[in-house]
Amino acid sequence: MLKMLRIVCVPLLGISIGCQGLTPHNVERDVTGAYDVESRYKLEKFEGVFTGLAGKWAQPDKAIGSQIQANVKADFGDTIGNAFVSLYGAQLQADITSYMNEEAPPWVMNLKTSLDGVDKQLATIDMQQSWLISEKEELDGLEATQIFDGVAVFADPDCRGSGALMCDQIEVNSETLLNAEYPIEILSSRYDVIDNKDSIALTSNEVNFNYGRLGLYYLTNLILPDDPDEGLTLRDVALGAVNCRGLAGRLAGDDGVYGVDVLGTSIGISIDDLVGNCQEGVFGTVNRFVDGFSAPMKMDLNGTSKTFDVNRDGQVDQITGGTVEGDMNVQLFSGQMEEGPVSGFFDGFRVGEN
């Protein structure tokens, strides 16, 4: 599900640990077990990749005008159709564009500002995870199985950077992401854990997900709609913004028919046909846009964290102050592979009874 949270932004994921000053003791501490973990990844290296897609969003007014003209040619033949385009095409297009500028939200004609918002939101990603640290089955040492439970971003990306104490955060669980129009799976992984008694080290930690599809989800469900919600499709959002029936009514006028005379032939296009032409134009615009909206990302990480046995019962209760760093690569929409550094933080708390 998609929900809005209010969080207090303090250093290290907003988690305040009040037991780091405990006097060390000699009780053996067992780190194996299950933990709820939140990690924050800093991905500023790729900020701007979504804004770069703005040019792939073809203004739907042009697509709608072309669809109406194509249907006239299909219904009346090339001679009448070409004459229709020559005599009325420019005015028809002007009327469609005028309607869109007056009635549709600004993003319909220029998506760049909305894509800027996606870039800012996804420059920092929080991921909720479940860890199971256990003994390796065949070799000495420990390993952790990492399962991703959800993703969260700041509703206002500038809030965190401004130093404000209270920032709204939007959380989407992994089931919702899997059920999205273009499913997003954040792959589970397994990696080595080195227990240093009062700390742990993580090696060969992989995080794999489709950065482009995640951006498309936030664009479709959070940024563009007047009423953000889960389970929306970009086609539905775009159709709602364009309002094809309103456009058809504007073109048809009081008679309910868009009618003109071309070389002695009366051409009449009903409101229902105009609505259909409009919808086809919007569908074409959306389909061409989302086809390239894929950018698989892989992060290779190593990290360290302090461990704390708060109640001194021999089991680690908290994994705190964790840091990770490493490399990431993204196959961008153009097919080009981009690489760069990634860093982050994590904190975890044991789940279940001690």
Describe the structure.
The protein is an alpha+beta fold. The chain contains 8 helices and 12 strands. The protein has helices at 60-103, 112-121, 157-161, 174-178, 211-223, 234-242, 244-252, 271-291, and strands at 2-8, 33-42, 124-135, 142-154, 166-173, 189-195, 199-210, 257-262, 265-270, 296-308, 318-331, 337-350. An 8-stranded antiparallel β-barrel has the order 2-3-4-6-7-10-11-12. A hairpin with a 2-residue loop joins β8 (257-262) and β9. α6 (234-242) crosses α8 (271-291) and α7 crosses α8 (271-291). The longest helix is centred in the first third of the chain and has 44 residues, at 60-103. It is elongated. The chain starts with a strand and ends with a strand. Residues 7-25 have low confidence and may be disordered.
Radius of gyration: 27 Å
N-to-C series of helices and strands: EEHHEEHEHEEHHHEEHEEE
Point out poorly predicted stretches: 7-25
User: Quaternary state, please?
Assistant: single chain
SSE class: alpha+beta
Helicity range: 25-40%
Give the secondary structure arrangement, pairings included:
Blueprint: E1 2-8, E2 33-42, H1 60-103, H2 112-121, E3 124-135, E4 142-154, H3 157-161, E5 166-173, H4 174-178, E6 189-195, E7 199-210, H5 211-223, H6 234-242, H7 244-252, E8 257-262, E9 265-270, H8 271-291, E10 296-308, E11 318-331, E12 337-350
Antiparallel strand pairs: 1-5, 2-3, 2-12, 3-4, 4-5, 4-6, 6-7, 7-10, 8-9, 10-11, 11-12
Helix pairs in contact: 1-8, 2-5, 6-8, 7-8
